[in-house]
């Protein structure tokens, strides 16, 4: 059996910078895997790409990587967020998308081990980071998911 992969997920909204970075440090995360389509929005505050990359490095020597293959398309995201779409439709569309992209082949276990999937949603229930984690757990079988 292959080595277990410890995969974390976190959302940055409804958290102070202190809560966010302390949570990452306490959990032992070594890499943030940004799964956002748009990671430069002013609304992201301390989690804008360049700022986040800097803070992660300075505060916890945590690597930062942005993997667009793990993000929804603008069409899927807009239909759900801006046009009041329902979660079930979004979930189905997003799972079809990552299956088409074959993320289990383009993303390696080495990249994800001790990594943390990042997006904006405060909780994982209605969030694509959970779908990515569960999809890979299903495909690989050796993924232990921890939502921070």
TrEMBL record:
<dbReference type="InterPro" id="IPR007438">
    <property type="entry name" value="DUF488"/>
</dbReference>
<protein>
    <submittedName>
        <fullName>DUF488 family protein</fullName>
    </submittedName>
</protein>
<dbReference type="Pfam" id="PF04343">
    <property type="entry name" value="DUF488"/>
</dbReference>
């Amino acid at each position: 059996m292959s080595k277990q992969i410890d995969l974390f997920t976190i959302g940055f909204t409804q958290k102070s910078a202190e809560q966010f970075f302390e949570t990452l440090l306490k959990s032992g995360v070594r890499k943030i895997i940004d799964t956002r389509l748009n990671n430069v929005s002013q609304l992201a505050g301390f989690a804008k790409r360049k700022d986040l990359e800097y803070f992660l490095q300075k505060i916890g020597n945590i690597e930062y990587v942005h993997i667009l293959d793990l993000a929804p398309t603008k069409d899927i995201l807009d239909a759900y967020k801006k046009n009041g779409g329902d979660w079930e439709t979004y979930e189905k569309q997003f799972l079809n998308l990552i299956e088409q992209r074959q993320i289990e082949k383009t993303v390696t276990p080495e990249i994800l081990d001790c990594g943390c999937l990042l997006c904006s949603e405060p909780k994982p229930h209605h969030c694509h980071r959970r779908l990515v984690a569960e999809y890979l757990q299903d495909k690989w079988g050796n993924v232990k998911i921890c939502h921070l």
